[in-house]
Amino acid sequence: MIDFLGITQHIGTYTKPGRITNRPLLKYDVVDDLGSLTGDLELREHLLEHHDYEVVSRKVFSVLARWYGCDFEIARGMKEDPFKKNKFFLDLYPGNQIFSIKREVLSLK
Asked: How far is the C-alpha of 46 from the C-alpha of 37, rounded, in Å?
């Protein structure tokens, strides 16, 4: 416990986040075996950033996946906004979706 200017904080009393699960983002839950996952699976429509998902770099995702575990990674690219100069947007529904399967997930203990 730390007491700073009359404010008391408990250190180490947080709950560790669970495993990263991207399966709820899929349009159809037809994946029984993650080994059979292919790139032709579609994401649900009308997903909202900060509500349904968070965007992180591949490097950050890699670290989080090692710490907490994950089912699979969904990779998307940034595209230049045709209406706003020097602005980019996440192409959440590209023509060709890329799924990278994390078959072996490491966890730090």
From this structure: 22
Could you tell me the maximum CA-CA distance found in the chain, to the nearest angstrom? 56
Rounded Cα distance between 69 and 73, Å, is 11
How many CB atoms are closer than 10 A to CB 65? 19
**Distance (Å) of CA 97 to CA 2, 38, 76, 92, 100:** 48, 9, 8, 9, 10
Domain regions of the chain by residue span: 17-101
Q: Which two tokens stand for residue 91?
A: 């192409």
The pTM score is 0.63
Name the DSSP class of 59: H
Rounded CA gap, 1 and 24, in Å?
38
Q: What is the dihedral of CA 93, 98, 101, 106, to 10 degrees?
A: -80
Task: Please provide residue 27's backbone torsions phi and psi, each rounded to the nearest 5 degrees.
Answer: -65, -45
Could you read off the pLDDT of 71-102 as tens digits, one per residue?
A: 888 888 888 888 888 899 888 888 754 455 45
Decide: helix, strand or coil at residue 53: strand
